[in-house]
């Protein structure tokens, strides 16, 4: 208990610059943890939705019926959004009696745009986590250097220096470094984990776009042959 009180005391007795550094690091840590929990929820939901939609897509359901179901839900994300944008563009171009090549070019373009938007949505807040992970140790180090510098400056004004005089200043300065690491380590771990999950989802989305394009290409080719 005494150790805890001593640390708290050091925090309150620290210089204004060191306190500002500590408050900055605490704020960054709180925001990054909020984003970590939010991203974890979003990516977990995205993975579950992707698996559920793939199972339904490959179950043999009629594409027009599936499109009607997806459109009825309004705003959709993930694979459903890619399917909706691709099939919608396919139907629009096909009704205009476009050639199979033109139909597929427009359909793939629509799905590529949708894929880019979905990846951007999944990567939301990841740059902030990367920033926290990279700069927090340096902010903490700045507070440490500043606190130790002030401690040695204060020693210059006394005749005889003792450990008791310099220890509190050095201790409060080192707390800033510890807080910088406390803010940085979870942010780096979360960023690496979430980036890997986004890469896996992006790969899954890309594979779906390719496979769906092949299915639509066969339909466009068959219809063109029939029309000929």
From TrEMBL:
<dbReference type="GO" id="GO:0017038">
    <property type="term" value="P:protein import"/>
</dbReference>
<dbReference type="Pfam" id="PF01618">
    <property type="entry name" value="MotA_ExbB"/>
</dbReference>
<dbReference type="InterPro" id="IPR002898">
    <property type="entry name" value="MotA_ExbB_proton_chnl"/>
</dbReference>
<keyword id="KW-0132">Cell division</keyword>
<dbReference type="GO" id="GO:0043213">
    <property type="term" value="P:bacteriocin transport"/>
</dbReference>
<keyword id="KW-1003">Cell membrane</keyword>
<feature type="transmembrane region" description="Helical">
    <location>
        <begin position="16"/>
        <end position="37"/>
    </location>
</feature>
<feature type="transmembrane region" description="Helical">
    <location>
        <begin position="169"/>
        <end position="191"/>
    </location>
</feature>
<keyword id="KW-0472">Membrane</keyword>
<feature type="domain" description="MotA/TolQ/ExbB proton channel">
    <location>
        <begin position="79"/>
        <end position="203"/>
    </location>
</feature>
<feature type="transmembrane region" description="Helical">
    <location>
        <begin position="126"/>
        <end position="149"/>
    </location>
</feature>
<keyword id="KW-0812">Transmembrane</keyword>
<comment type="subunit">
    <text>The Tol-Pal system is composed of five core proteins: the inner membrane proteins TolA, TolQ and TolR, the periplasmic protein TolB and the outer membrane protein Pal. They form a network linking the inner and outer membranes and the peptidoglycan layer.</text>
</comment>
<comment type="similarity">
    <text>Belongs to the ExbB/TolQ family.</text>
</comment>
<dbReference type="InterPro" id="IPR050790">
    <property type="entry name" value="ExbB/TolQ_transport"/>
</dbReference>
<keyword id="KW-0997">Cell inner membrane</keyword>
<keyword id="KW-1133">Transmembrane helix</keyword>
<comment type="function">
    <text>Part of the Tol-Pal system, which plays a role in outer membrane invagination during cell division and is important for maintaining outer membrane integrity.</text>
</comment>
<protein>
    <recommendedName>
        <fullName>Tol-Pal system protein TolQ</fullName>
    </recommendedName>
</protein>
<keyword id="KW-0131">Cell cycle</keyword>
<dbReference type="GO" id="GO:0051301">
    <property type="term" value="P:cell division"/>
</dbReference>
<dbReference type="InterPro" id="IPR014163">
    <property type="entry name" value="Tol-Pal_TolQ"/>
</dbReference>
<dbReference type="GO" id="GO:0005886">
    <property type="term" value="C:plasma membrane"/>
</dbReference>
């Amino acid at each position: 208990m005494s150790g805890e009180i001593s640390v708290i005391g050091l925090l309150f007795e620290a210089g204004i610059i060191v306190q500002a550094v500590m408050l900055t690091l605490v704020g960054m840590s709180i925001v990054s943890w909020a984003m970590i929990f939010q991203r974890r929820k979003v990516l977990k939901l995205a993975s579950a939705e992707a698996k559920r939609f793939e199972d339904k897509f490959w179950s043999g359901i009629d594409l027009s019926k599936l499109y009607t179901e997806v459109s009825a839900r309004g705003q959709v994300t993930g694979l459903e959004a890619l399917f909706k944008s691709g099939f919608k563009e396919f139907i629009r171009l096909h009704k205009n009696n476009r050639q199979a090549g033109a139909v597929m070019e427009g359909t793939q373009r629509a799905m590529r745009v949708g894929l880019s938007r979905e990846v951007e949505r999944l990567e939301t807040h990841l740059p902030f986590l990367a920033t926290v992970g990279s700069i927090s140790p340096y902010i903490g180090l700045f507070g440490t250097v500043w606190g130790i510098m002030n401690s040695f400056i204060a020693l210059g004004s006394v005749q005889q220096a003792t450990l008791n005089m310099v220890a509190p200043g050095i201790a409060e300065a080192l707390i800033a470094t510890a807080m910088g690491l406390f803010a940085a380590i979870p942010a780096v771990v979360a960023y690496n984990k979430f980036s890997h999950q986004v890469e896996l989802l992006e790969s899954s989305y890309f594979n779906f776009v390719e496979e769906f394009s092949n299915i639509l290409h066969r339909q466009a080719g068959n219809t063109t042959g029939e029309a000929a």
